[in-house]
């Protein structure tokens, strides 16, 4: 039976992944990667390692909720030992994104900046509204808990990419990441992606389309982090059935 490995096992989401996988009869836990110590008991037979190579040798699919440097190491090691990868970490550099692309030429890789079904659908809606309501100004706001280290969120950037795509634009050409002082009037194409941080907000994303006399806001709120852990486990079960290497999305997994 296929077994799963976790990168980021001591983290907020990693901990929930362990809770779910120790009970999972379809995709049991094979190994977890740790930097230091894992301060919880695991069923006997589950390997705890600080070596990415050993992790890959002891599982058939990896779920990664960690940090960009950890995902980089995972991809580098996976290129030597191809294994399906479900990657959920955010905040990558361009080099790290390219490395994930390289890895996807050798093994199935599913990358999603958000593992929820709601955001999977929201991306499509955002592209459609952006294309349809051409004269509306687009602004994106994301809200997360006080511990989040990357900004803006990976999800907000993904939503921005879909919004830009609806207008035939590249987000990198039109993104505004702050406004302060005498900045002048808003330009037609710009898309601001702004971040709020506080408390224990699991994740909230609002994509607004604003015009004279009316505005439309599409909003998604994650109320439990289990949305992400369960979404990633669903993705891992789907990914191990994919025979061809490639970069898959959560929408491929959900068939939407
Ligand atoms: N795609 C999605 O649906 C979601 C994505 N995320 C993303 O997942 C990531 C993790 O989120 P969260 O669980 O909240 O974060 P945490 O900070 O709670 O956990 C991070 C984990 O990564 C580990 N880690 C950090 N640096 C390294 C490294 N260099 N090598 C190996 N392991 C490392 C940490 O280990 P240690 O404890 O030893 O530091 C810890 O286990 C973030 O990028 C976040 O944005 C989060 C939620 C949903
Ligand atoms: O760090 C988090 O918590 C989250 N990160 C992801 C992101 O950056 O988009 C997904 C989710 O919003 C929670």
Automatic annotation (TrEMBL):
Could you tell me which residue ranges the Dihydrodipicolinate reductase C-terminal domain spans?
118-254
User: What is the protein name for this chain?
Assistant: 4-hydroxy-tetrahydrodipicolinate reductase
**Span of domain Dihydrodipicolinate reductase N-terminal:** 3-115
Gene Ontology MF term list: 4-hydroxy-tetrahydrodipicolinate reductase
Q: Point out the coiled-coil segments of this chain.
A: none
The record's annotation in SUPFAM superfamilies points to: Glyceraldehyde-3-phosphate dehydrogenase-like, C-terminal domain, NAD(P)-binding Rossmann-fold domains
| Keyword set, alphabetical order | Amino-acid biosynthesis, Cytoplasm, Diaminopimelate biosynthesis, Lysine biosynthesis, NAD, NADP, Oxidoreductase
What species was this sequence derived from? Answer: Sulfurovum zhangzhouensis
């Amino acid at each position: 039976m296929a077994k799963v490995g976790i990168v980021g096992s001591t983290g907020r989401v990693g901990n929930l992944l362990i809770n779910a996988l120790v009970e999972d009869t379809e995709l049991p836990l094979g190994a977890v990667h740790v930097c230091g110590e894992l301060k919880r008991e695991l069923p006997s037979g589950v390997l705890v390692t600080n070596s990415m190579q050993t992790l890959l040798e002891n599982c058939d699919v990896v779920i990664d909720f960690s940090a960009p440097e950890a995902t980089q190491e995972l991809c580098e090691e996976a290129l030597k030992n191809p294994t399906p990868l479900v990657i959920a970490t955010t905040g990558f550099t361009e080099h790290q994104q390219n490395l994930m692309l390289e890895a996807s030429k050798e093994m199935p890789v599913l990358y999603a900046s958000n593992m929820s079904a709601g955001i999977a659908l929201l991306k499509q809606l955002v592209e459609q509204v952006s294309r349809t309501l051409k004269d509306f100004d687009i602004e994106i706001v994301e809200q997360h808990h006080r511990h989040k280290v990357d900004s803006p969120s990976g999800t907000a950037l993904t939503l921005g990419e879909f919004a830009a795509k609806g207008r035939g634009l590249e987000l990198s050409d039109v993104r505004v990441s702050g406004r302060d002082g005498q900045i002048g009037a808003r330009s037609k194409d710009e898309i601001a992606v702004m971040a709020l941080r506080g408390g224990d907000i699991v994740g909230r994303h609002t994509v607004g389309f604003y015009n004279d006399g009316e505005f439309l806001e599409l909003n998604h709120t994650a109320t439990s982090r289990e949305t992400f852990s369960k979404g990633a486990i669903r993705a891992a079960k789907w990914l191990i059935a994919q025979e061809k290497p490639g970069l898959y999305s959560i929408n491929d997994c959900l068939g939407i």
